[in-house]
Amino acid sequence: MRVLALLVALSVAVLLAFDLGPAEALPPSAESGAELAARWCADCHMEQRSDAPSFNTIARRRSLDDIRASLTKPHARPMGGISLNRREIDDVSAYIKSLNH
Ligand code: HEC
């Protein structure tokens, strides 16, 4: 539990730090993207429990711009649609692309 509290405090600190700086100037963070993906996308894209293509497959098939473009559209209707802000789109796209090694 203490570890969890520490993690929460850390995330808040990171979020605050991001808010203070000019968000546009920050490069996309594949690390934040990975956290976001684990929370919002894993059920469909990482567990192979649905017909969604895996992120590995997407990384191989699509360019970074394609991924970003598809995330700006409403997505995944079964879940009521997920909408990400620009920063989140950049981060999660960078993460997906980083899987393509
Ligand atoms: C409820 C299940 C579900 C969730 C949750 C979900 N997706 Fe998807 N996603 C799909 C399905 C199904 C497709 C393929 C059909 C489509 O494009 O609508 C897809 C397609 C995509 C594509 C385009 C793939 C391609 O090659 O055209 C991207 C990129 C993507 N998802 C990213 C994400 C990200 C990032 C998240 C989390 C923020 C996410 N998805 C959450 C089900 C889901």
Tertiary shape: globular
Quaternary status of these chains? single chain
CATH architecture assignment: Orthogonal Bundle
- Overall mean pLDDT: 79
Strand content: under 5%
Number of domains: 1
| CA radius of gyration | 15 Å
Q: What is the H/E string?
A: HHHHHH
Number of helices: 6
The ligands found in this model are: heme C
CATH superfamily: Cytochrome c-like domain
Major pleated sheet:
none
Which terms summarize this structure?
101 residues; mainly alpha; Cytochrome Bc1 Complex, Chain D, domain 2; binds heme C
List the helices and strands and how they pair.
Blueprint: H1 2-20, H2 30-40, H3 42-45, H4 55-61, H5 64-72, H6 86-98
The structure holds heme C.
Short description:
This protein is mainly alpha-helical and 101 residues long. The chain has six helices and no strands.
